[in-house]
Amino acid sequence: MPGNFPPVTTLEWSPTQNHSLKNAKFSKKGEDMTGTIDLVTTQTDGPIREHFVFTDTDGVVYHLMVEGTVIKEGTRIPPDSQTGLINSIAWRGDLMVLGDSTGHLSFWDLKARQSRLVPTSRGAIKKLLLAPGRNTQLLLVMFNDGVEIWDCAESEVLSSIKSSKIGEVVDVDWGASDRPIIVNESGAVHIMDVNLDTAPNPVTALSLHTPIWLPFIYNQKEMMNFKIYIQHMGWQENWDMKCPKSCSPIIWDSMLHTLKLRDKFSTLSFLERCLVTAALYGDMVEWRLWQVLAYYLDQSSPLSSAFDIVQDNQSYLKDQVKTLAVQEKCRSTYSHRQHSIHRHILLGNTDKPVQLLLEVEQDSPNFYQDCLRASLISSVSDSEVAQSTIKLVATNLIANDHLLEGCQLLCLIKKAVDACRYMQNFHHYNEAIWLAKVALSKEEYSEVMKYYIDLLVNNGSRHLGILLAISLHYFDKAAEILLATKLVTIAAPLVESCIEAGKWPETGTEIKDRVFVEYAKYLVSLNNVDVALKYCEMGGEKGKQLGEELRICAQ
């Protein structure tokens, strides 16, 4: 795409194939508008031509065509003066509907070249979905406070439901042309009719021919008890698969039959069971955490580039060098070249930045400046006078709002630690972490990351802070953050996995005992006393006291 490509607020593909879209006049309330979309069916023998539309932050609607590997720009439609930021688009055939941040619905009939702007009076529109089926014109509209179904032909509301009745809505979809599906914040799935009425039955009342693995449709306590059971089965010498008292036999048998656990889980280590369980329950946050922990406990296989700054420094450096090589091949503007120069200097390279700086055109306004920079980089010496002068210049540049240029000079004289500190002080945290991972020693890197972890935790990004603490082998710090966040169901398996691998620090006894005591209390709330007693024994003096109280209550 071109470098001046506008920022996209929402995008929609047309499911109609083998169509061409042409500029046409568009009538709205008796007024003509140019540059709107008209679909004309054509027969072609070449690649299928696909169409999509998107909007930018100014409300302009763009139409683009994709044919094979070629993207062609079509029509640009100026925004309506009464609409706000477009949040969602629904498009099928000759019907297109746009919803904005002010609660307006704009119905476009592409064949008749007519449009209607209708206020919903419900606030910002979050999502639009047309019902499946060729002849249906039902539109599902999701708001912050509920859901509505509209008849596009008449531009009127057919039914409505508010969050106060079904809970805060997080997503919607169509199960069939007359079956809207609503998911609320508790994870409940409501399958309704077009009147938005529902009558769900409990799963235990259903007679299923084949058991299904959908843990979140069951009772929350039973779901968590089953998760705990398959995670902690290793503590039982004779694992008998019997249903515990805290679970429903129907649900228990359904889950066991679905997963066929007998041959799969009994041979896995504790951390492996945690990893598989997170995947089974669809908990991607927990799954990523166990992936990172498994790597830093045994380092069996490196983490992929998807883990970004959580990777070990050597793997991260290799990925960044590959990324920089790709960016160099694709660079097309002066700013792209400057970005490559900046990255190479931070990496400690000098030959490549000089080469890139000397590529500047003679008629460029930056010709003189870039030639001087190339001369400076190639003539940097290790003499004390040169080092002192460059450091003084770098400090003055940073003090006068030239942070990146000053940090480049510091990296040229091997002062990357100072550059990281300046970046942190001026709140350029991403750049500071990038430099720390590719240029600093292990001890220097740890000091920079300690500050960054505390910053992440204080600013609410606890999950990334926990992953970074694990990557630094600060397992007790990660457990402390999890406990403070009341994620004891993750903290306890983390501590136990580290103990099993022999990596738990000797200074972490206090936090270990606190985690196991809190986890035991959580297990008691699920009526899972047997496993709770095991963790009481591992929780130090306070854990043993709690265990005695539980035994007395059980008598």
How would you characterize this protein structure?
There is one protein chain. Residues 17-27, 29-36 and 38-43 have low confidence and may be disordered. Strand 7 and strand 8 form a beta hairpin. The longest helix has 18 residues, at 313-330. The protein is built from 20 helices and 17 strands. It has helices at 163-166, 220-231, 249-259, 270-280, 284-298, 313-330, 334-346, 351-357, 367-378, 384-399, 403-412, 416-425, 429-439, 442-458, 462-471, 475-484, 488-500, 509-525, 529-537, 540-554; strands at 8-13, 19-28, 31-41, 49-56, 61-67, 70-77, 86-92, 95-100, 104-109, 114-119, 125-130, 138-143, 146-151, 156-162, 169-176, 179-184, 189-191. It is α+β, with helices and mostly antiparallel strands and 555 residues long. 43% of the residues lie in helices and 21% in strands. The strands form five sheets. A four-stranded antiparallel beta sheet has the order 1-4-5-6, with no helix packed on it. A four-stranded antiparallel beta sheet has the order 7-8-9-10, with no helix packed on it. A four-stranded antiparallel beta sheet has the order 11-12-13-14.
